[in-house]
Amino acid sequence: MRSVGFTNTQLSARAAYLLRGNDLGTMTSAAPRLYPHMWSWDAAFVTVGLAPLSVERAVVEMDTLLSAQWGNGMIPHIVFANGRDGYFPGPARWECSELAFNAPRSPQTSGITQPPVHAIAVQRILDHSRRQGRTTRSVAEEFLDRRWGDLVRWHRWLAHARDPQGRGRITLYHGWESGMDNSPRWDAAYGNVVPGADLPPYTRADLSHGADASMRPSDVEYDRYLWLVEQMKRANYDDAKLPEVMSFAIEDVFVSAIFAVACEVLATIGEEYSKPRSDIRDLRAWSDRFRSGVAAASAERNGAARDFDIKAGRWINTETIAMFAPLLCGGLPRERERALVKLFEGPRFCGHPDLKYAVPPSTSPISGDFKPREYWRGPVWPVMTWLFSWAFARRGWTERSARLREEGLRQAQDGSFAEYYEPFTGAPLGSMQQSWTAAAVLDWLD
Ligand code: GLC
């Protein structure tokens, strides 16, 4: 392990170089080999990294993503790059343009969604454009005028199709929709997903890209992931049918908190740029509803937020980074929030004495579920560190935010821009040259 890292200037130059290398023209691949297409929440974070480099290019990234939006308003979790293979399940497996009346014919997409962080990206585009001349400012403003309606439709779809009963929490029908694919949060719910004998055969592509199989989800997990896709296909990806047909349905507290804060961000943008009052009113109402929904999911004792397994009718108690969802959006009573901050900074998370850097691991090292090298079961994901540092800054917690940034940057000093890191040794893991890791670094160093 290198002990002397790059200077900040070198590091941001390398991060910019990385994004340029992963640029496919009008989209940035999530990573060069393992993820050769555009992922929805990756694209938003990538936009955050592109905005200080080029507002124009950042706008293109969001335009590409939004051009794949479905008729019902959903932003799909993958937009497939034309003519690129190398990922499974690809368009031929999802069959969205054939089966789903809401899906666009082109570009091709997956049939599920991902966390709604996009308002953050839009805000960054606008913020950076204000530092620039008139031409760049008008590129950003034209983008907002062109896409405002789409952004509101996206949020409206989440608020309606994914919270039909107005509980203030987003329902997910696939663990991949959480962005934390194999988090222990979903283990119990996946236990109830029993792949049918008629699950069409498949070959995984993720293992043939040099990825270490022991760090990736297992084959049993993969069968379940694909069985859920099969269930959706058989229902033609129809929002109205999913609640009935899916064997996996959970209310995700982390996605709900992101949604609460994203609605607030979008509402503020709407006010600043004189968008329709009714849109702003809806966004504020959704923000309030979801903030309350997140608070209602948090334990009285320590504030830790829980997901809800709809199929089993019970709260999910795992010790993962999602416990801290209320810190993203606020809304907890003061004492409870204080307890939750203490948990975040204490020995069960960022303050664990053996951590190489004081950043939140995806699963608590104290938990029985903890696996230091396994994807969302323990490793540190730099983009999550970024999200918390962003949210803390927004909430006025300047020092706390700066601490995460500093530690996140120390971790990034190795210059690998890894997808995730071993929490104790700091070893880079998963895919290297991961776009959103570079984006986080670029924003931190801006
Ligand atoms: C993995 C992650 C997901 C991410 C994708 C592309 O599937 O779990 O959150 O969007 O890779 O980076």
UniProtKB/TrEMBL annotation:
Domain Mannosylglycerate hydrolase MGH1-like glycoside hydrolase: from-to ranges: 35-437
Keywords: Glycosidase, Hydrolase
GO MF annotations in UniProt: Glc3Man9GlcNAc2 oligosaccharide glucosidase activity
Natural source organism: Williamsia limnetica
Keyword Hydrolase among UniProt keywords: yes
Name of the protein: Mannosylglycerate hydrolase MGH1-like glycoside hydrolase domain-containing protein
GO BP terms, alphabetized: oligosaccharide metabolic process; protein N-linked glycosylation
Keyword Transcription regulation assigned: no
Family indicated by similarity: Belongs to the glycosyl hydrolase 63 family.
PANTHER family noted in UniProt: MANNOSYL-OLIGOSACCHARIDE GLUCOSIDASE
